[in-house]
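Box 3.1 A note on notation
Throughout this textbook, protein chains are presented in two layers. The first layer is the amino acid sequence; the second is a C-alpha coordinate string describing backbone geometry. Keep the layers aligned when reading.
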Amino acid sequence: MKAAEAMNRSVVSCAESDPIELVAQRMRDSHVGFLPVRDEDGRITGAITDRDITVRIIAEGKDYKTSKVGDAMTREVYFCSSTDPLKEVEDLMARRKIQRVMVIDDGTLVGVVSLSDLSKKEWGFRVARTLQAVSSS
Protein backbone atom coordinates (compact mmCIF):
# COMPACT_ATOMS: atom_id res chain seq x y z
CA MET A 1 0.00 0.00 0.00
CA LYS A 2 1.15 3.52 -0.83
CA ALA A 3 0.60 6.85 0.94
CA ALA A 4 -1.74 7.87 -1.89
CA GLU A 5 -4.22 5.18 -0.81
CA ALA A 6 -4.64 6.68 2.65
CA MET A 7 -4.11 10.40 2.14
CA ASN A 8 -6.77 13.07 2.23
CA ARG A 9 -6.57 15.02 -1.03
CA SER A 10 -8.86 17.85 0.09
CA VAL A 11 -6.31 19.99 1.87
CA VAL A 12 -6.99 23.59 2.86
CA SER A 13 -3.89 25.70 3.50
CA CYS A 14 -3.03 29.20 4.70
CA ALA A 15 -0.22 31.74 4.59
CA GLU A 16 2.13 32.83 7.38
CA SER A 17 0.70 36.34 7.07
CA ASP A 18 -2.94 35.26 7.46
CA PRO A 19 -4.70 36.51 10.60
CA ILE A 20 -5.25 33.85 13.28
CA GLU A 21 -8.94 34.74 13.49
CA LEU A 22 -9.41 34.03 9.75
CA VAL A 23 -7.50 30.75 9.99
CA ALA A 24 -9.56 29.61 12.99
CA GLN A 25 -12.72 30.34 11.00
CA ARG A 26 -11.31 28.44 8.01
CA MET A 27 -10.60 25.45 10.29
CA ARG A 28 -14.13 25.61 11.68
CA ASP A 29 -15.74 25.87 8.26
CA SER A 30 -13.58 23.03 6.85
CA HIS A 31 -14.04 20.83 9.95
CA VAL A 32 -10.28 20.45 10.43
CA GLY A 33 -7.80 21.28 13.16
CA PHE A 34 -4.70 21.41 10.94
CA LEU A 35 -3.65 23.56 8.01
CA PRO A 36 -0.39 23.46 6.05
CA VAL A 37 1.27 26.89 5.92
CA ARG A 38 2.67 28.23 2.66
CA ASP A 39 5.06 31.09 1.98
CA GLU A 40 4.47 33.71 -0.73
CA ASP A 41 5.99 31.33 -3.32
CA GLY A 42 3.60 28.52 -2.37
CA ARG A 43 6.24 26.40 -0.59
CA ILE A 44 5.23 24.64 2.62
CA THR A 45 6.96 26.30 5.58
CA GLY A 46 5.11 24.61 8.41
CA ALA A 47 1.68 23.87 9.78
CA ILE A 48 -0.77 25.37 12.21
CA THR A 49 -3.17 23.46 14.41
CA ASP A 50 -6.05 24.45 16.62
CA ARG A 51 -3.78 23.48 19.52
CA ASP A 52 -1.04 25.86 18.29
CA ILE A 53 -3.59 28.68 18.34
CA THR A 54 -4.78 27.75 21.82
CA VAL A 55 -1.33 27.32 23.38
CA ARG A 56 0.71 29.99 21.56
CA ILE A 57 -1.90 32.73 21.20
CA ILE A 58 -4.86 32.36 23.57
CA ALA A 59 -3.03 30.87 26.60
CA GLU A 60 -0.26 33.47 26.29
CA GLY A 61 -2.79 36.30 26.29
CA LYS A 62 -2.01 37.45 22.75
CA ASP A 63 -4.72 39.14 20.70
CA TYR A 64 -6.10 36.61 18.22
CA LYS A 65 -7.48 39.46 16.11
CA THR A 66 -4.03 40.92 15.42
CA SER A 67 -1.86 37.78 15.62
CA LYS A 68 -0.69 36.11 12.42
CA VAL A 69 -0.18 32.45 11.55
CA GLY A 70 3.59 33.00 11.69
CA ASP A 71 3.23 33.86 15.39
CA ALA A 72 1.81 30.44 16.27
CA MET A 73 2.73 27.93 13.58
CA THR A 74 4.92 24.86 13.95
CA ARG A 75 7.88 25.01 11.59
CA GLU A 76 9.09 21.44 12.06
CA VAL A 77 6.89 19.35 9.79
CA TYR A 78 7.33 16.06 7.98
CA PHE A 79 6.73 15.05 4.38
CA CYS A 80 6.46 11.97 2.23
CA SER A 81 5.68 11.22 -1.41
CA SER A 82 2.39 9.73 -2.58
CA THR A 83 4.34 6.70 -3.79
CA ASP A 84 6.05 6.05 -0.45
CA PRO A 85 4.99 2.81 1.21
CA LEU A 86 2.32 3.49 3.82
CA LYS A 87 4.32 1.47 6.34
CA GLU A 88 7.17 4.00 6.03
CA VAL A 89 4.71 6.85 6.65
CA GLU A 90 3.32 5.06 9.72
CA ASP A 91 6.85 4.40 10.95
CA LEU A 92 7.69 8.10 10.53
CA MET A 93 4.57 9.05 12.50
CA ALA A 94 5.49 6.61 15.26
CA ARG A 95 9.17 7.60 15.38
CA ARG A 96 8.51 11.37 15.41
CA LYS A 97 5.32 11.08 17.51
CA ILE A 98 3.28 13.05 15.01
CA GLN A 99 -0.30 12.70 13.87
CA ARG A 100 0.04 14.03 10.31
CA VAL A 101 2.46 13.79 7.39
CA MET A 102 2.12 16.09 4.40
CA VAL A 103 2.33 14.45 0.99
CA ILE A 104 4.44 16.34 -1.56
CA ASP A 105 4.91 15.33 -5.20
CA ASP A 106 7.17 17.37 -7.50
CA GLY A 107 7.28 20.17 -4.94
CA THR A 108 3.48 20.41 -4.72
CA LEU A 109 1.30 19.57 -1.74
CA VAL A 110 -1.08 16.84 -2.92
CA GLY A 111 -2.47 15.58 0.38
CA VAL A 112 -2.05 14.76 4.04
CA VAL A 113 -1.93 11.38 5.77
CA SER A 114 -3.27 11.58 9.32
CA LEU A 115 -4.02 9.08 12.03
CA SER A 116 -7.66 9.96 11.42
CA ASP A 117 -7.31 9.03 7.72
CA LEU A 118 -5.70 5.73 8.68
CA SER A 119 -8.50 4.97 11.13
CA LYS A 120 -11.11 5.35 8.37
CA LYS A 121 -9.54 2.48 6.47
CA GLU A 122 -9.80 -1.12 7.54
CA TRP A 123 -6.29 -1.30 8.92
CA GLY A 124 -7.25 -1.44 12.60
CA PHE A 125 -4.20 -3.29 13.88
CA ARG A 126 -1.84 -0.93 12.02
CA VAL A 127 -3.61 2.18 13.27
CA ALA A 128 -3.58 0.89 16.83
CA ARG A 129 0.16 0.20 16.63
CA THR A 130 0.91 3.63 15.15
CA LEU A 131 -1.35 5.43 17.64
CA GLN A 132 0.29 3.63 20.54
CA ALA A 133 3.75 4.68 19.32
CA VAL A 134 2.68 8.31 18.70
CA SER A 135 1.08 8.52 22.15
CA SER A 136 3.86 6.90 24.16
CA SER A 137 6.34 9.08 26.01
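The chain has a mean pLDDT of 90. Strands lie at 14-15, 34-38, 44-49, 79-80, 100-105, 108-114.
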